[in-house]
Structure formats: structure tokens, C-alpha cells
Specification:
- This protein folds into two domains: 217 residues, Rossmann fold (3-Layer(aba) Sandwich); 78 residues, no CATH class.
- An eight-stranded mixed sheet has the order 1-2-4-3-5-6-7-8, with helices on both faces.
- Helix 2 crosses helix 3 and helix 4 runs antiparallel to helix 5.
- Helix 3 links the parallel strand 5 and strand 6.
- The chain has 325 residues and is of the alpha/beta class.
């Protein structure tokens, strides 16, 4: 499946709750200025310490409280006595607005509102943010801007510029689709024309190339790219295409926990480039209150051949969050 404009945030239908649910779930309505947002709060039966919470930041696309991958994180943490707010992204479920017209900075403001709500409504001592996949882009924005954020967790969120991430993913996706190296080169050339259209508004070169590809060996795959010049996708790309998370990470003072799956290097994520950039940024700011982990798993952070979160990852994550008390 082609994923030009959205970093994958998987909704794994086969990921079912494996917990006995030692928590309750309450509806939550909160606001970012005049924008009404909705979420669910996972309220633990036996809260940890003086009260600690995590506001989840959803990944790409129309992700809401019914995203079973994101929900598995909420259940995991609530089982351990941690309050969790799992939101409907703006324009999804019961939340107002439209994520298709939002910048990552806009979504960071939504996340900040969720942190303030969770902290105030449940009288918690500390509340952090946890971004999943594309939500990891948003973590350093909100952490660097919102004083109520006590800690930051990035799960498989890239540290490279958005454009670099897209090209990494496109190349891997093309190879997975069975394209030859020469055809992958052609896919990247197509992306150059896409970028030119986004920057100049001149549709003719891209339209001409699409017509040429109708007779190519990878015509079916080419049809999975945005073909309508008036598609909402182009405006969304214009808003977000130049985004770079690294300058925001350079301003994050709170403790940070960052996790990747090594196998994601061949899929969605330039893992090792992201790790290096973060190490470099944190060294420059002499940041010591951070952990970066890379596990032997893929983008969903699952156990090998199982729809269950990786045990080493969950052990480290829970230990680290509880240290925030």
C-alpha cells in the first residue's frame, strides 16, 4: 500500500486486549481554544504513587479511540496504575475539526490541551505525552512548548525531516511491492515531480508523467499515488512537508524515553539515522535525562510473529514511567 502522505500508524484488528482490565474507562471532553475534542480516560483501579498520567498522541490518518494499536498502549499503562488519555484526533470520532487541514504544530496544541485536562481533572502530580509513529513528530513540539508536560515518550517516531522520512518509506514500500531497483528510481523521480507540483502549482509535468506510467510495468502501483490535482493531500503536504522535529528536540528539557524497532529500518523508519541525530542533539545540549532504545522488532513494536507488544520494550517503558513519580 502506498503511503506518500502519511507515516504509517497501524490499526491492527487482530490486536485484542490481553489484560483483565483492572481499570475503568471514562469519557473526556476538552478544548483547544474553541475546538472541542474528545477522548477516553483509562482510570486505574490502583493508581501508582501520587498520581501519574500519560496523554497519547495518535499517529497518522484518521486515528481515534477505536485504534486498537494505540488502545493496547493505554491498557498496558492503565494496568500498571497509570492514568491514560486516549484521544480521537481532531476530525475523528467525536472530536471536532479536521486533521487534513492541520499542521503538526496544530496537533501539538491539541495534545497540550489533553495534558492540561488530564492533570487538572484527575489531580495528577505529573502528566507526560506519548507519541505513536507520526505522533512522535508531535512529542518534541508539545514538550518544548507546554509547561504542564512532565516527560516525553516517543514510540517509533522519526527524528529526521518529514521529506527524508517519506523517501525512506517510499523506497522500502516499492521494494516490498516487488519493484526492481530501476523502477524504484523511477518512483523517486515521480516524487520529485510531486514535490515540484506542491511548490509551484504546475500540474502539467506530473500529469504527463502519470500518463506515461499507464503503459509501464508498474502501472498498478503508480495508480496508488495521488492523481487528483485538487486532492486535499496536496494542501496537507504543503503545510507539513518541510517539518523537521530535531530543532524541537533541542529545546526539550523534560526527561525523554525514545524507542525504535531495528527491523523498521527496512520498512517505515530510518532508525539508525534517527538514533544518531538524537544522540548528537542531546550531546550538544548536555541532556542526561533521556533514554534511547532499539529493540529487535518492527514498526508496531510487537513480539516476533505475535500481535503482542514486545516484552523488553514494555518492561523498559513501564519501569521508566514509574520512575517519573
Amino acid at each position: 500500500m502506498k503511503r506518500f502522505y502519511a507515516i504509517a500508524c497501524f490499526v491492527f484488528a487482530f490486536q485484542l486486549s490481553v489484560f483483565p482490565q483492572n481499570f475503568n474507562i471514562a469519557d473526556a471532553t476538552f478544548s483547544n481554544d474553541t475546538l472541542e475534542l474528545f477522548g477516553e480516560v483509562f482510570v486505574p483501579s490502583s493508581p501508582a504513587g501520587q498520581g501519574i498520567g500519560v496523554a497519547i498522541i495518535q499517529g497518522s490518518g484518521p486515528s481515534g479511540t477505536d485504534n486498537l494499536w494505540a488502545r493496547s498502549f493505554a491498557e498496558l499503562l492503565a494496568e500498571e496504575g497509570i492514568y491514560v488519555l486516549l484521544p480521537d484526533k481532531r476530525g475523528v470520532g467525536k472530536s471536532r475539526g479536521d486533521w487534513k487541514t492541520a499542521s503538526f504544530e496544530d496537533l501539538a496544541e491539541d495534545a497540550a490541551a489533553s495534558v492540561r485536562f488530564l492533570k487538572k481533572e484527575y489531580r495528577l502530580g505529573k502528566v507526560g505525552v506519548m507519541g505513536l509513529s507520526q505522533g512522535g513528530f508531535i512529542v518534541p513540539i508539545v514538550a518544548s512548548r507546554e509547561a504542564a508536560v512532565a516527560f516525553a515518550i516517543d514510540v517509533v517516531g522519526a527524528a529526521v525531516p518529514f521529506e527524508e522520512l517519506i523517501i525512506h518509506e517510499v523506497a522500502n514500500t516499492s521494494l516490498q511491492e516487488g519493484l526492481s531497483p530501476e523502477q524504484v528510481k523511477e518512483v523517486l523521480e515521480l516524487h520529485v515531480l510531486m514535490k515540484q507540483y506542491v511548490k509551484t502549482g504546475d500540474w502539467a509535468p506530473l500529469e504527463h508523467r502519470y500518463k506515461e506510467l499507464e503503459s509501464s510495468a508498474w502501472a498498478d502501483y503508480a495508480r496508488s499515488f495521488p492523481r487528483d490535482k485538487d486532492s486535499w493531500v496536496w494542501d496537507w503536504i504543503r503545510i507539513n512537508f518541510d517539518f523537521d522535529p530535531l530543532p524541537y528536540w533541542g529545546k526539550v528539557e523534560q526527561p525523554a524515553f525514545i524507542a525504535y524497532g531495528a527491523r523498521d529500518e527496512q520498512d517505515n523508519m530510518p532508525v539508525w539515522r534517527s538514533v544518531y541525530l538524537l544522540q548528537e542533539a542531546f550531546a550538544e545540549q548536555h541532556k542526561k535525562n533521556c533514554e534511547i532504545h532499539v529493540y529487535d522488532t518492527g514498526h508496531p513494536m510487537y513480539q516476533p510473529d505475535q500481535a503482542v507488544l514486545h516484552k523488553g520494550f514494555t518492561t523498559d517503558l513501564i519501569r521508566w514511567v514509574k520512575e517519573m513519580e
